[in-house]
């Protein structure tokens, strides 16, 4: 293998004999590997301890599965005669969800930009905003609902506010995380042409992050449509209340009707939004 | 038409009259013999203080029955009825309507005991020291309201609870109907979740009347101390039976007796009585009589919630 | 004028990128940086407009220290430095024209550019720049639908449209065919001469370097191992840069005996 | 001139595209206004001042006694249970949703119908109300934390798999091509070219879901599936604001701590 | 043997990538494809191992039609075709060694490779391949911490480790210094000669093409405009490929007058 030695000679790298090189690098690979194994072990231990703590019984799940079938069977056939009753509440729910999502998404944009480490390296700005986001996301929607009802009285407005805060927290968090994952190349290019921060955002960040943002917006909207339980708590009517009533009266066939209508709404929104997105981007 | 079996803890079920349900046809000696007991508690709506605590009762019952007892709490009765019917729960503290549904609709539970609470003084809304096994619903209006009778409610805005709530909808609505006001068409109904929220809505003038348990104003009084001065009871309904203690329908008769005895024994012990009162606001238990629940069925039917 | 004083750069993983670099580049020079792959050429260019911070030392652009500048001062220094990236760094999801126009944002107020509206003049500048690199017909196509060389040309057009006084080009012709290579290098040379624009180019081909450069800098393992005019860059000197003699066939001559090629 | 022609035709397409953008913006605006009009804003209520004050007072004086009770069922232990339920629930859903995610990802299949079916399935899972999922599992395994774990786990498949599949759709196709060109099977391509690219995002979404699950404890409380939710609902129902205050404080602390740890983890992974 | 019969490819956006291509490439040939940027060189290579489907026509590899193959048959054809990508296509987030090892998955059952464990022999093959391109010392470094040329070399090592009978290389030396360029091209030539491996390389430099190729194919706007031996590839022929005369200075000769350069 004359050529091989020739090649090795020509390299500017100091020639370590191949075998020792192999050992060194392989050793490096091993420590990484054992670290990874340790992480996995720790993870498994945590899962096992947790399972024991709350008394997980897979066997019970297995023998209990047919019981679930009993209930699912009761959902069919759906009670179509219930459809006229649920139209208006569904519409109401959509309205609340639209307003809550959009009003939550608008402040979420600056919040996300200020929280992303690669866009706002200033810790003194990002930390308080992240903390605020944490707080907003933490407060259970029930509590939001209770507070807003206390201040604004029962009705859709209080429900919308509860959704607004929730949407704000979720969209901002997801967006800033995907902002942190964007390709830094275009940002560099914009930095290099002397763009200021806002220009970097407009030209380097937004084109990259827009699809994710829209996707999170729709995702939140969908959650909001289904978060109707909260709306029930604030007397905003909505589809969640009817769902609870159906369950309370054990009318699973009506619950099925509600689920199917919700599914239809969600699918229609999904479809229109993807076609809009395709046109926009 | 449901002439369900009366299960009486004090004198075992020989006195059963017309036995229509399948489950009760079983001989008393057979049936399910528990090795451990799964108990779930669902509060009825007339509680002003509640604790989501289970351990004390687990201990009290366990001591009495000598088998392991596991107690859980749930704010929603649907799950308990479903769990009873799939035999995942052996004993349920069920609100009246939930008991009727579980018993009539699912054949999942039989009545064992009924809880007693202190009565409420109609005038002051404060508790008396009389132990009763029923409570009432009421329709509240603002003190200065010009609504004086039930018929005045025509065309007004009423805040109901869920349509499944005995005190918040079924009883008052049925009596409204009796008085000639159709609760579905003659009034403007608004569903409000929570008796407290309903009273707040009344105070804020968002609704003209609300249906509540007696006397839900005590809950609101923590925030609005003069709630009693601001409001007036327009109407009290017929008594609603208190929470039940029900057992799964295939429970062995001997064990039914044992369990009933155990609960009664707990309330007779001062320490036990205190615990049960603190957690569930129960002050005693009496043998349950399914006949007491006839009004629940009747009223439900009156508002179009016929239980098949 | 670009001045580097004792510039060093060590990456977080311990790799030494640059080691004690001292350079003085006069206005209007056409400097070509050569060196092995991994020698630190990209790192050097990226330090000059401070895309990567140096570990120690100071870099001055026309007397202003870019290593200590910040805020709008740093931005205005950068606006005058155009950069062509080795990996193009295009905004893939927008059109070619928008990519080129983005090179002009430094000239406009934030508000104006916020809505992506540029004066007609800017659009013309951008289209002219695209014409120079022969892809004006792709102006309204999304950048991710281009071939490798076409993407590289868009990145060049962006730097041209920036109308900077310094151009840093990191292997601007790596993916280009000889024709376009010549065109691009000629273009760089022309603006260097006509507008007296300081130009620093990383190149792999010594011949190309000799053709265009007024000065060649050789890097090896992060150190400057050669710095001189084209005429001084003799084969011996190049041997130092590449760590061994550069054989005739590595000069990419066209007349050669294939059997005589070394390494086989 | 040819050039001019070209220019004008392309500026026409640009103008058309702008027009379309404005139309869509207008459409969204109209929908927004329509929904705002349905909101029936009634302004501040007469009781809002007293009530907010009493809520605030409750929050200012949390029920510290509830933090730790010797006989158990205190804040700390309920939070621990919530944490454990969330960990297991997240684990269940993170595992279960992976096949769904690949099923629904459009770039994992040449056919259009197949991922379409996957997306539809996920939509169905998502619209299935949490309540019903919880009831289903309570019927199977009885009330308690295990039912809570299963309900959380299965319910969140829909969302997690949707987010995962979008991540998969967003990856750089280059490495996949490289693997395909080597003659790798579909699974091998996924293992070597897809997984390394999506792992950080997967973990990030799982951690995010973990956080949501902690919050969902309130919903689970509705069906008595364990954790801090039930005490919170009870306290809310009887307007015991001091208790609500201390519970909220506990949840906030728990989420902040887990968020801190999870962002640490994320940084190490990326 | 690779046979292309009337192969055409039109992209969804209407761009014509290939137009009616007919080619016969014998086992052991060293073919260099030249052409302007955007001529369709990458598209042609990607069609041969069916990374992109052709619109019409048929491609046969050793008598088997790859255009109609599927499943394990398609995979086994592909396993025998190594590819070096213009844009490297590395898995950025894993180590260099893992990247190279991924070239060997075709030899193992899915189950075995799922856990990422490769036989010792494979690791040795991978390390040898890295040694050939001079970056063995980076084996345990993450691929995104490499310089451009280093990344390109990893991608070459991956194709070498695959031990294929056909190698398709899409501008394998675009980001490499002349030294490494020669080494890589020599290596390709050596395995082409010693192991009789059919090699198809896209190159931009005609000189390099003339040095290594046994046959040169010229593409222009998706069509084959030249196909012949190195000796036939006269300057006039090249003029056809590039659409105008190739000037002396475009051959990257080292002796030239700078003022004479054309395109300005
Ligand atoms: N982000 C990074 N982290 C760690 N090491 C890096 C990083 N970027 C580059 N390096 C290392 O620094 C050295 C110099 O890299 P640089 O990119 O400057 O090389 P180059 O001369 O441009 O090479 P090429 O011609 O291959 O592009 C290389 O050894 C490289 O591996
Ligand atoms: N995904 C795509 N969609 C639409 N058009 C494409 C796509 N990929 C390539 N093209 C177009 O097809 C033509 C041929 O592209 P190809 O990548 O084969 O060129 P090439 O000869 O490899 O050029 P280069 O030397 O610049 O890499 C180009 O005009 C290019 O714009
Ligand atoms: Mg470089
Ligand atoms: Mg190409």
Automatic annotation (TrEMBL), chain A:
It comes from the Bacteria. It holds the Pfam family BPD_transp_1. Gene3D superfamilies: MetI-like. GO terms for molecular function: ABC-type phosphonate transporter activity. CDD domains: TM_PBP2. One of its GO terms (cellular component) is plasma membrane. It is a multi-pass membrane protein. Residues 90-273 form the ABC transmembrane type-1 domain. This is Phosphonate ABC transporter, permease protein PhnE. It comes from Paenibacillus glacialis.
UniProtKB/TrEMBL annotation, chains C, E:
CDD domains: ABC_PhnC_transporter (cd03256). Pfam families: ABC_tran. Residues 2-246 form the ABC transporter domain. One of its GO terms (molecular function) is ABC-type phosphonate transporter activity. Keywords: ATP-binding, Cell membrane, Membrane, Nucleotide-binding, Phosphonate transport, Translocase, Transport. This is Phosphonate ABC transporter ATP-binding protein. It comes from Paenibacillus glacialis. GO terms for cellular component: membrane.
From TrEMBL, chain D:
CDD domains: TM_PBP2 (cd06261). This is Phosphonate ABC transporter, permease protein PhnE. GO terms for cellular component: cell envelope; plasma membrane. SUPFAM superfamilies: MetI-like. The chain crosses the membrane at residues 21-39, 83-105, 217-238, 244-262. Keywords: Membrane, Transmembrane, Transmembrane helix, Transport. PANTHER family: ABC TRANSPORTER, PERMEASE PROTEIN CC0363, PUTATIVE-RELATED, PHOSPHONATES TRANSPORT SYSTEM PERMEASE PROTEIN. Belongs to the binding-protein-dependent transport system permease family. It is found in: Cell envelope; Cell membrane; Membrane. It is a multi-pass membrane protein. Gene3D superfamilies: MetI-like. PROSITE patterns: ABC_TM1 (PS50928). Residues 79-262 form the ABC transmembrane type-1 domain. The lineage of its organism: Bacteria, Bacillati, Bacillota, Bacilli, Bacillales.
């Amino acid at each position: 293998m004359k050529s091989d030695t020739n090649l090795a000679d020509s390299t500017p790298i100091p020639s370590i004999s191949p075998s020792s090189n192999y050992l060194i690098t392989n050793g490096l690979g091993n420590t990484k590997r054992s670290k990874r194994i340790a992480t996995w072990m720790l993870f498994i231990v945590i899962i096992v301890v947790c399972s024991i703590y709350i008394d997980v019984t897979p066997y019970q799940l297995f023998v209990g599965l047919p019981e679930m079938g009993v209930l699912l069977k009761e959902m069919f056939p759906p009670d179509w005669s219930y459809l006229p009753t649920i139209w208006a509440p569904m519409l109401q729910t959509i309205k609340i969800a639209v307003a809550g999502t959009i009003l939550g998404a608008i402040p979420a944009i600056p919040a996300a930009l200020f929280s992303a480490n690669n866009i706002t390296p200033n810790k003194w700005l990002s930390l308080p905003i992240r903390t605020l986001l944490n707080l907003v996301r933490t407060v259970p929607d029930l509590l939001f609902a209770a507070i807003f009802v206390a201040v604004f009285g029962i009705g859709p407005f209080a429900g919308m506010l509860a959704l607004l805060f929730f949407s704000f927290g979720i969209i901002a968090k997801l967006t800033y995380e995907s902002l942190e994952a964007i390709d830094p190349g275009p940002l560099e290019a914009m930095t290099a042409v002397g763009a200021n921060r806002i220009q970097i955002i407009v030209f380097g960040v937004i084109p990259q992050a827009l699809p994710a943002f829209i996707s999170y917006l729709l995702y939140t909207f969908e959650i909001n449509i289904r978060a109707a339980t909260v709306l029930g708590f604030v007397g905003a009517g909505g589809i969640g209340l009817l769902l609870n009533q159906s369950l309370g009266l054990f009318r699973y066939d009506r619950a099925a009707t509600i689920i199917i209508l919700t599914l239809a709404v969600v699918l229609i929104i999904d479809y229109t939004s993807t076609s809009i997105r395709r046109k926009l981007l | 038409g449901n002439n369900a079996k009366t299960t009486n803890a004090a004198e075992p079920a020989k006195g059963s009259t017309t036995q229509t349900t399948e489950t009760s046809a079983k001989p008393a000696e057979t049936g399910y013999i528990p090795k451990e007991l799964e108990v779930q508690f669902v509060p009825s709506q007339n509680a002003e203080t509640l604790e989501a605590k289970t351990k004390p009762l687990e201990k009290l019952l366990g001591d009495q029955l000598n088998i392991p007892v596991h107690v859980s709490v749930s704010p929603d009765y649907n799950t308990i009825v479903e769990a009873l019917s799939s035999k995942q729960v052996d004993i349920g503290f069920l609100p009246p309507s939930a008991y009727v549904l579980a018993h009539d609709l699912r054949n999942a539970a039989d009545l064992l005991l009924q809880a007693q609470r202190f009565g409420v003084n109609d005038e002051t809304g404060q508790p008396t020291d009389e132990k009763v096994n029923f409570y009432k619903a009421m329709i509240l209006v603002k003190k200065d309201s010009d609504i004086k009778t039930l018929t005045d409610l025509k065309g007004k805005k009423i805040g109901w609870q869920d349509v499944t709530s005995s005190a918040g909808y079924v009883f008052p609505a049925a009596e409204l109907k009796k008085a000639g006001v159709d609760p579905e068409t003659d009034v403007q109904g608004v569903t409000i979740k929570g008796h407290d929220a309903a009273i707040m809505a009344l105070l804020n003038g968002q609704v003209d009347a609300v249906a509540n348990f007696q006397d839900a104003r005590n809950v609101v009084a923590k925030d609005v101390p003069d709630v009693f001065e601001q409001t007036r009871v327009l109407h009290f309904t017929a008594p609603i039976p208190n929470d039940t203690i029900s057992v799964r329908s295939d429970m062995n008769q001997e064990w039914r007796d044992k369990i009933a005895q155990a609960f009664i024994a707990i309330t007779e012990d001062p320490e036990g009585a205190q615990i049960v009162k603190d957690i569930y606001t129960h002050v005693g238990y009496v043998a349950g009589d399914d006949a007491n629940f006839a009004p629940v069925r009747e009223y439900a039917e009156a508002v179009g919630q016929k239980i098949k | 004028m670009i001045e580097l004083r004792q510039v060093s750069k060590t990456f977080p993983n311990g790799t030494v990128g640059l080691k004690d670099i001292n350079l003085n580049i006069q206005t209007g020079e056409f400097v070509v940086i050569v060196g092995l792959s991994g020698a630190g050429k990209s790192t050097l260019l990226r330090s000059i407009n401070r895309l990567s911070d140096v570990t120690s030392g100071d870099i001055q652009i026309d007397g202003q220290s870019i290593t200590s500048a910040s805020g709008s001062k740093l931005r205005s220094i950068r606006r005058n430095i155009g950069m062509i990236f080795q990996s193009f760094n295009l905004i893939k999801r927008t059109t070619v024209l928008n990519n080129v126009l983005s090179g002009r944002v430094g000239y406009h107020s934030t508000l104006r550019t916020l809505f992506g509206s540029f004066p007609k003049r800017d659009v013309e500048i951008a289209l002219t720049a695209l014409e120079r690199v022969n892809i004006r017909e792709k102006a309204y196509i999304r950048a991710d639908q281009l071939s490798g060389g076409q993407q590289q040309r868009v990145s060049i057009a962006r730097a041209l449209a920036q109308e900077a006084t310094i151009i840093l080009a990191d292997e601007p012709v790596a993916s280009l065919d000889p024709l376009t290579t010549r065109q691009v290098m000629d273009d760089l040379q022309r603006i260097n001469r006509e507008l007296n624009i300081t130009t620093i180019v990383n190149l792999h081909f010594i011949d190309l370097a000799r053709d265009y450069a007024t000065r060649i800098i050789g890097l090896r393992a992060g150190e400057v191992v050669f710095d001189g005019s084209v005429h001084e860059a003799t084969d011996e000197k190049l041997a130092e840069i590449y760590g061994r003699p550069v054989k005739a066939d590595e000069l990419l001559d066209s007349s050669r005996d294939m059997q005589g090629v070394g390494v086989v | 001139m040819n050039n001019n022609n070209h220019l004008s035709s392309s500026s026409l397409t640009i103008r058309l595209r702008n027009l379309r953008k404005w139309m869509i913006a207008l459409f969204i605006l109209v929908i927004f206004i329509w929904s705002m009009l349905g909101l029936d804003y009634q302004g501040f209520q007469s009781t809002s001042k007293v009530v907010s004050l009493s809520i605030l007072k409750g929050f200012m004086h949390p029920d510290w006694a509830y933090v730790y009770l010797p006989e158990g069922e205190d804040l700390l232990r309920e939070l621990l249970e919530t944490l454990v339920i969330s960990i297991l629930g997240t684990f269940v859903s993170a595992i279960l949703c992976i096949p769904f995610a690949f099923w629904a990802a459009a770039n994992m299949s040449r056919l259009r119908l197949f991922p379409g079916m996957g997306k539809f399935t996920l939509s169905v899972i998502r619209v299935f109300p949490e309540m019903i999922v919880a009831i289903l599992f309570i019927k199977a395994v009885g009330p308690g934390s295990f039912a809570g774990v299963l309900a959380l786990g299965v319910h969140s498949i829909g969302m997690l798999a949707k987010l995962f599949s979008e991540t998969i759709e967003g990856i750089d196709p280059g490495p996949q091509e490289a693997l395909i060109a080597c003659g790798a099977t579909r699974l091998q391509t996924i293992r070597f070219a897809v997984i390394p690219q999506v792992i950080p995002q997967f973990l990030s979404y799982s951690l995010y879901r973990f956080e949501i699950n902690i919050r969902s404890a309130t919903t689970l409380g509705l069906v008595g599936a364990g954790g801090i939710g039930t005490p919170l609902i009870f306290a809310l129902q009887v307007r015991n604001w001091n208790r609500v205050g201390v519970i909220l404080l506990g949840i906030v602390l728990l989420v902040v701590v887990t968020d801190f740890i999870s962002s640490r983890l994320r940084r190490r992974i990326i």
